[in-house]
Amino acid sequence: MQTKTLERMESNVRTYSRSFPVVFTKAQGARLTDENGREYIDFLAGAGTLNYGHNNPHLKQALVDYIATDGVVHGLDMWTTAKRDYFETLEELILKPRNLDYKIQLPGPTGTNAVEAAIRLARKVKQRHNIVAFTNGFHGVTMGALATTGNRKFRENTGGVPTVGGSFVPFDGYMGESTDTLDYFEKLLGDKSGGLDVPAAVIVETVQGEGGINVSGLEWLKRLESICHANDILLIIDDIQAGCGRTGKFFSFEHAGVVPDMVTNSKSLSGLGLPFSHVLMRPELDQWKPGQYNGTFRGFSYAMVTATAALKHYWSDDAFELEVQRKGKIVEERFQKLAAMLSKAGMPASERGRGLMRGIDVETGDVADKITGKAFENGLIIETSGQDGEVVKCLCPLTISDDELQKGLDILEAAVKDVVGAKDTVGA
After folding, report:
1. Integer angstrom CA distances of residue 112 from 22, 200, 216, 304
2. 258 contacts 37 by C-beta, under 8 angstroms
3. How far is CA 337 from the centre of its chain?
4. Where are the alpha helices (DSSP H) in 10-146?
5. Residue of 307, 353, 370, 396 with fewest CB within 10 Å of its CB?
6. How many helices (H) and strands (E) would you count in the chain?
7. Residue 162's pLDDT is what?
8. pLDDT tens-digit series, residues 89-113
9. Model-level pTM?
10. Of 258, 207, 209, 265, nearest to 234 (Cα)?
């Protein structure tokens, strides 16, 4: 395996290649293969970009067929058959069954493009500058989105340019289980001397991915929606990582029965790992003037073709989401056992998550790195998240087989036992 050229030429900003320092050559389903022919089970899945697995055959065939007919690849925001098929399929299979009435904006290919568009539109509609976000939230690293991203690691690398336009309030559970953090938010909104500029919008992840698999309570989300309605504030759900089935519903907010004013999606939206994002908005919020927000890659037809294929294959009924929920229970139970094993060994740990977006909080990045490092040695790719990388995070493909899921969990359990054993040896 040769990594010297890559190490020499790629910027120091790289991250995943440091944790998984091999050269991969192919991928299929829930497995990656390196250039030595070694296979790895993938519990990372492109950080939630490959919910339907690597090189999903149904999606890949749809793309191959489209390419073979010389279908339009790039069309700016011109109308194409690929766009029409995607819009119609999204409406029929996702929006109408959920009684959602949204217009669609294609702002550019990435999640942060969608967040930038959503918060800018909110400011335009409400004629207010402030956007309220939550502690541990992650919404992207372009300047507008960065102002709503909590982690200091990202915020302090702007060359001294301040991030402006965002205010932070505590996420659910941030002050402990006994405190409803929305009491604080509501108090600030009603206090003219509280220092909080009345926001145009609130942006929130129902499950914070980068922030450490922090799960908002369903009643908390409902109350947040009510507070926004009562104060003429738009509610934006950032469903970039938690959406497209990751939590066991197509939209993560479905569990709470809330209806956001805007939704941002990306990551697994294309289904095949192709860059694609959109903003869904209530029709009356679509107050853009033509060309007022644009981007060269708004019309990436390949991504729309695979997105359409994913919706048709997996979302024509509720069978797929029920499977995700079933597999999520398997991971939940295994993670609870691993957390108990660690805690019994004097390494406090706890499990949390929703659907197949789950994590084990081991409280220190050092312990989490040891677990994921040992897991990689034994053929499992799994990452960490949280402010200090203290949460071991499972984002396996939603299509993973039961055998592969159990094998991956077995590898993770062995890694936990190694770390616990090493601690006991040192302690002895």
Report:
1. 28, 18, 22, 18
2. no
3. 25
4. 16-19, 45-48, 57-68, 81-90, 111-126, 143-146
5. 370
6. 14, 17
7. 87
8. 999 999 999 999 999 999 999 999 9
9. 0.96
10. 258
